[in-house]
Amino acid sequence: MEIKNIKKIILRLLGNLLLYSVVNIVCKTCRIRQNIPHNTKQLLNSDANYVIAFWHGTMLANWYVNKNKNIVALVSPSKDGELLSNILNKWGYKLQRGSSNKSGKESLDILIELAKQNNTIALTPDGPKGPEKEFKAGAVIIAKKSNLPLILVGVKNKNLYRFKKSWDKFEFPKPFSEIVLNYSEPIMVNSDISYNETSEVIIECGKKLNYLQSLEY
Predict the structure, then answer these.
(1) Nearest to 24 by CA among 77, 76, 71, 61
(2) How many degrees, rounded to 5, is the angle at CA 22 between CA 25 and CA 95?
(3) Long-range pairs for 76-84 at CB < 8 Å and ≥24 separation?
């Protein structure tokens, strides 16, 4: 192996290690408050499985609060996805690399099967490439075909760094900041509804998630 390639591997490993350490330390300093409806709280505190969805740009707090729950996380196969995979792996997630949109049918089928096999599924419905805050079909289709409830979570970061040049305007909380997570009621998607009715549910979920995202602190 060439020395240049060895250096690249070492730098990549160091980058992954440092990123995880920084993210983990910052998240530990943050004050995270969760607004959870009664029915949703009962579901989260039970042994039942569900599908949970949150926007890509504010995903960090959601990944953090759900760590070590043995959840299946959908992560893109991109280089950015590789960095996220390293963090989620250390946070106890089971990883599925791919996309839940129409071009990622294979990954979607795998997630549906995993959901049917008593796994909770977590994903960002506008990922992996956007458009920002556009709710794609994946989360609703998984909930519909697995008969699992869907939970949406909006995030409000009080003090943050916003990466304005990234497609999702990614938000990274500043140390010791306050973060509020606003949960929806569990959403059941009838497995017998038509294509058009399913499309309406997808649109309504996008509106609901944006509403949860807009709530005041």
Answers:
(1) 61
(2) 95
(3) 76/127, 76/128, 76/129, 78/128, 81/128, 83/15, 83/16, 83/19
What are the pLDDT digits (tens) for 51-90?
999 999 999 999 999 999 999 999 987 777 888 999 999 9
**Which residues partner with 73 through β-bridges?**
95, 122
Q: How many domains does the chain have?
A: 1
Nearest partner of 146 among 107, 190, 202, 185, judged by Cα: 190
Write out pLDDT tens, residues 155-165: 999 899 999 99
- Which residues make Cβ contacts (< 8 Å) with residue 7, sequence separation at least 6? none
The CATH number linked to 199 is: 3.40.1130
Beta bridge partners of 189: none
- In the block, tokens 């697995």 appear at 146
Rounded-to-integer distance, Cα 10 and Cα 140, Å = 41
Give the domain range for residue 51: 3-214
